[in-house]
Amino acid sequence: MAETLPFYAEVRVLRASERPQLEGKLGGILGITEPPDPSIPPAYAVLLDGEEEVYTFLHDEIEPTGHMRKQDDYY
């Protein structure tokens, strides 16, 4: 299983089959699910740059850029 990404990690959308216009966009992780079964990877709530809505992505739909954002960037 892939390692859980941290809060405020900057990510790029790799795949968004139901919303292809979001592919390639950058954003920050604002929420992480805690599945009851440890074999189930978490989902991530991501606020994408230029968007007002928070979108949910599975781990394999996003990739970290290696940059961390700050809580102050959002709250």
Extended strand count? 5
Q: What share of the residues lie within helices?
A: under 10%
**Largest β-sheet summary:** 5 strands, antiparallel
Unreliable segments of 5+ consecutive residues: none
Query: Structural class, from secondary structure content?
Result: mainly beta
* SSE series: EEEEE
Q: Number of helical runs? A: 0
How much of the sequence lies in strands comes to 35-45%
Outline = globular
Main sheet: which strands, in order across? 4-3-2-1-5
What is the mean pLDDT? 94
User: Alpha-carbon distance between the termini?
Assistant: 31 Å
What integer value in Å does the Rg equal?
12 Å
In words, what does this structure look like?
This protein has 75 residues and is an all-beta fold. Helices cover 0% and strands 40% of the residues. It has no helices and five strands. A five-stranded antiparallel β-sheet has the order 4-3-2-1-5, with no helix packed on it.
List the defining traits of the structure above.
75 residues; mainly beta; 5-stranded antiparallel sheet
Topology:
Elements: E1 9-13, E2 26-32, E3 43-48, E4 54-58, E5 62-68
Antiparallel strand pairs: 1-2, 1-5, 2-3, 3-4
Structure described in brief:
With 75 residues, this protein is mainly beta. Helix content is 0%, strand content 40%. It contains no helices and five strands.
